[in-house]
Design goal:
It is a single chain. The chain has eleven helices and 19 strands. Strands 6-5-14-15-16-13-17 form a seven-stranded mixed β-sheet, with helices on both faces. The structure holds flavin-adenine dinucleotide. The site of flavin-adenine dinucleotide (FAD) has 33 residues, from helix 1, strand 2, strand 3, strand 17 and helix 8. Flavin-adenine dinucleotide binds next to helix 1, strand 2, strand 3, strand 17 and helix 8.
Length: 377
């Protein structure tokens, strides 16, 4: 006896939803996955796989694809932004043993391609360009009305429709809304210099941190967070100039990258928003996971990993308990405090950056957060 469903609907085909679909199908469920995007596409930025995110994706069974399409790294090298000189090298914790890489990076579209191929090959019914209009439930199932007028009945519904979730509004109407954090994230791709192979690099000044993550063979992305208290609208045409100006005090290699940023450079700019549901993430037979309930800022590079962990833990607990309520309670016991730590510490790191807090204070919180997030989930 277990609470594993025979049929499940997953709403949202991002990292959380695809992870849940994979795990549920592994456990024998028939899964329908819907996404509102008719193309099921993702924007073309890189993501950094912290030790937490890397472990979660490996636990999902994606290590080989991750290593062949992405790029691993085992150390982060800290440099002075103005002069470019190396300050120190920090080894990343190897959570899967000494023979496995610690972390790395991958292009989001590549990760999406890996995961969506797996979801389809496991046999999910994937319906695109579709949203949910209404859910109603009784003791035995959930009736769902889709936007196209079709309906379905499922043993379990997983809401994984991200930061601006409509499932959250439907299922937990009193949940908080996403909030702008005061920062915006810039991301740009470059060719990876030979000497930065296998290294995550960070360049620090009293007012700016600029990071580089290898994310595909021979390629890396640069990221930086800017303090933008008024959250200004920015036209794509003005972005290269703003970004070059943000990097005006950079020296060495970073100055070389800055100087090639021009009108044709694809730039990903995104104001950073966050949300945390500090309470149950379920209502009856509908459970919410991923950014829908704990969208974090990029400071710990762990949002994707937390989404995957949710899916893994959810299906583990459904398999361990006889009833969904028991499984959901056990799921919350394992997830809520951890999500509060990751989201809370990420927000705190952003606040310290915006306040110009001493680097030692920021480094201490980063270190404590990394240690906490490396604990078993
Ligand atoms: C700037 C930035 C940088 C980041 N960098 C990192 C990083 O380096 N490392 C890391 O681990 N994490 C990072 N993250 C976090 C990570 O991207 C997210 O935590 C992760 O993508 C969450 O996955 P998700 O599936 O919950 O949500 P999403 O990825 O947002 O997926 C939601 C899916 O639901 C679909 N959808 C939306 N609404 C509906 C609807 N009504 N009906 C049906 N479908 C719907 C969407 O089309 C989408 O496919 C970063 C986030 C940001 C904003």
């Amino acid at each position: 006896m277990s609470a594993l469903p025979d049929t499940a609907l997953v709403v949202g085909g991002g990292i959380a939803g695809m992870s849940a679909a994979m795990r549920l199908m592994d456990a024998g469920a028939a899964v329908t996955l819907i996404d509102k995007d008719p193309e099921w596409s993702v924007y073309g930025a890189g993501i950094t796989c912290s030790a937490l995110t890397f472990r979660a994706l490996c636990d999902l069974g994606l290590a080989n694809e991750l290593l062949s399409m992405g790029a691993p790294h085992n150390v982060v090298a800290l440099h002075d932004l103005a002069g470019g000189s190396l300050l120190r090298t920090i080894p990343l914790p190897r959570l899967q043993g000494e023979t496995m890489d610690a972390g790395g990076g991958i292009m989001r579209p590549d990760l999406h391609a890996i995961m969506s191929a797996r979801v389809r090959s496991l046999g999910a019914e994937v319906r695109l360009g579709l949203t949910v209009d209404a859910v109603s439930q009784d003791a035995d199932g959930v009736d769902v009305t889709f936007r196209d007028g079709t309906t379905g009945r499922f043993d379990l519904v997983v809401g994984a429709d991200g930061l601006f979730s409509t499932m959250r509004d439907m299922v937990l109407p009193n949940a908080p809304k996403p909030k702008f954090t005061g920062q915006a994230c810039w991301r740009v791709m470059f060719d990876l210099p030979q000497e930065w192979q296998g290294v995550g690099a960070m360049f620090l000044s009293p007012t700016l941190k600029v990071g580089f993550t290898p994310c595909a063979p021979g390629r890396m992305y640069m990221y930086l967070l800017e303090h933008v208290p008024d959250n200004p609208w920015r036209d794509a045409s003005e972005m290269p100039g703003i970004l070059r100006n943000l990097l005006k005090d950079a020296g060495g290699k970073v100055a070389e990258f800055r100087d090639v940023i021009g009108a044709d450079t694809p730039i990903n700019y995104r104001p950073v928003e966050s949300v945390l549901v500090d309470g149950d993430w379920y209502n009856g037979r509908v459970v919410l996971i991923g950014d829908t309930v704990h969208a974090t800022t990029p400071h710990l590079a762990s949002g994707a990993g937390m989404a995957v962990e949710d899916a893994i833990v959810l299906v583990e607990e459904l398999g361990r308990h006889d009833t969904q309520p028991d499984a959901f309670r056990a799921f919350m016991d394992r997830r809520l405090e951890r999500a509060k730590m990751v989201v809370g510490n990420s927000l705190k790191l952003g606040e310290l950056e915006m306040a110009g807090a001493p680097m030692q204070q920021q480094a201490a919180l980063m270190q404590a957060s990394t240690e906490a997030s490396c604990a078993l989930y």
